[in-house]
Amino acid sequence: MSDDGVGVRIIEQLGGESRPSPRPSPQGEGEHRIEYLDGSVGGLRLLNWIEQANRLLFVDAARFGGEPGECRLFALNELLHPEPAVPGLAKPGTVGSGSFSLHQTDLLSVLRLARQFYRVPPTWLLAIGAESVQPGDHLSPPLERALPRLVETARRLARRLATG
User: What is the pLDDT of residues 22-41, one digit of tens each?
Assistant: First the structure.
């Protein structure tokens, strides 16, 4: 898992919290629902989920020049720009790398396909600076120490985005 699994760890901690956000929708149609999904192995299976969502927030380790545990929020247009703001999200053997396999579809590739063929709601990435994405079973010490703060940041951001 190494630091590449920080998004999974955050979603695991938030997973038991799938529930309505605290405020009703502006139209008075009830509450927005926040659902936490581990999309780390979703690949192309995420396309239907993407199309059905009202808003999306992905949480993932990324190389964007930040320190380990530093967070930065990126909008969809920043991610899919020809020179993406977060180049570390395109993994070798994926659409972004020029060699595509349906078994190795990274987040940027899924988002590009979704935008081309489906409806894509307002979408953001909470990018988390990683110390190491080498194979491993544990987060690096800086990310392990930052995990409670990262979980709270993701929780607050999801609630804020859900209400508009």
Answer: 444 444 444 567 777 777 66
Query: Can you tell me which residue has the tokens 């991610």?
Result: 79
- CATH number for the domain spanning 21: value is 3.40.50.1450
| Closest among 69, 76, 83 to 107, alpha carbons compared | 76
Residues 6+ apart with CB under 8 A from 160: none
Among positive and negative, which fits the CA dihedral 149, 19, 106, 43? Answer: positive
DSSP helix/strand/coil, 28: coil
Domain with 109, as residue range(s), is 3-162
In this prediction the pTM is: 0.78
Which residue has tokens 């899924």?
A: 110
The number of folded domains in the chain is 1
